[in-house]
Amino acid sequence: MLGTYHYHEIIRKTIIAFGTLFNTVEIRHKKQDGSNYSSMKVPIAYGPAEKFLARLEQKPDLRKRVAITLPRLAFELISIRYDNSRKVSAMQTFKAFTKDGSKLAKKVFMPVPYNLGFRLSIMTQYNEDSMQIIEQILPIFQPSFNVTVDLVESIGEKRDIPMVLDNISFDDNYESGFEEKRVIIHSLDFTAKTYLFGPIADSSEGLIKKVIVDYQTGTNIKNPSRELRYTAEPRAIKDYNNDATTSLSEDINEEVTQFEVSNVSGLSVDSYIAIEQELMFIKKITGNKILVRRGEDGTSLQSHNNGTTINLVDSNDDALIEVGDDFGFSEERFFFNDGKTFSPSKGIDVWMKNLIK
Q: Which domains are delineated in the chain?
């Protein structure tokens, strides 16, 4: 009923990111002369359930009394709350690209903002140890600290998640009897402002692959006169399919613009060819000689040897443009005087007056 199965491990990744912030906290004890007497990294664990699981593995006999080792840190997820202040339209989408090597564009709905509540407990036996740990943590949060989390690994969606320090509380059982061990506990409450993503669509529909602009003139908006249409589509600026349309019949340097090829049957005027890494535009064909415009779309002028393969760069290559590749545009202009305009929903030209009512 709810839809397609998906699990991006976002909550798990956020928990790990939060705990990782405190895994390098340490305390040091000094001698009277100021030199270090001892130092230790404060252990941290997710609790409370995991602490009992760990004890079962280490001490199966739970009836045997074992004192807890102090100091130590423990943290746990205590709440999950929807954050209405960061809400965006439920129908808003964006395009992302897969990282599996296929470089396919994916249609992704905007994530849902949620606040994850965490509690970090600092447990020590001595007040000096507590102060050392707290002073290593509090200056970092002012009152937040951003942590980059790879929320959806399949599309490389990384976001900075603010970890906000909300509250600090203190508890000390110093008034307990002498038979009990003193434990000082500082509890720090945090909010992680994360995002939860839904399923990632397998379809790449919705990508803009063609732009059509109609220009109207005059001030009569009821019966406008369309005079110019401009269209643009992505165009490849290198060969992708190695079609080997023809080959050079002579050596050429960087200055030559007319040269002979072995066969012109697969070439046409106003088309593009690629010789090694250089893109050229064919202006004229005479016999087996072609007149070209060199170094198109920013490609470098190069010298080429007799027999070098010439590849045709056409619509077949346009369809193979990969994500992240540079590309140009195929542009066309048409002149009209019929008062029509292009309707994207119908895919045809319609009377402009039918759209303006």
A: 10-196 (3.30.2000.40), 211-350 (no CATH)
| pLDDT in the model for residue 244 | 92
For residue 48, the number of C-alpha atoms closer than 13 Å in the C-beta half-sphere is 2
Q: 154 — phi, psi (to 5°)?
A: -65, -25
How many Å is the Cα radius of gyration of the chain?
34
Q: How confident is the model at residue 50 (pLDDT cuts 50, 70, 90)?
A: very low
How far does CA 78 lie from the centroid of its chain?
29
| Least confident among 165-174, 209-218, 237-246, 266-275 | 209-218
Whole-number Å distance between alpha carbons of 247 and 238: 16
- Nearest CA to 54 out of 69, 33, 38, 40 is that of 69
Residue 324: pLDDT band with limits 50, 70, 90: low
27: which 2 tokens?
A: 């305390």
pTM of the full structure? 0.60
Residue 32 to residue 45: CA distance in whole angstroms:
33
Task: Report yes or no: 21 and 147 within 8 Å, Cβ to Cβ.
Answer: yes
Residue type, 273: I
Copy the structure tokens of residue 138.
């509090």
Contact by Cβ (8 Å): 72, 130: no
How do beta strands 44-46 and 72-82 pair?
parallel
Q: Are 94 and 110 in contact (CB under 8 A)?
A: yes
- The 10s digit of each residue's pLDDT in 285-301 is 999 999 999 999 889 99
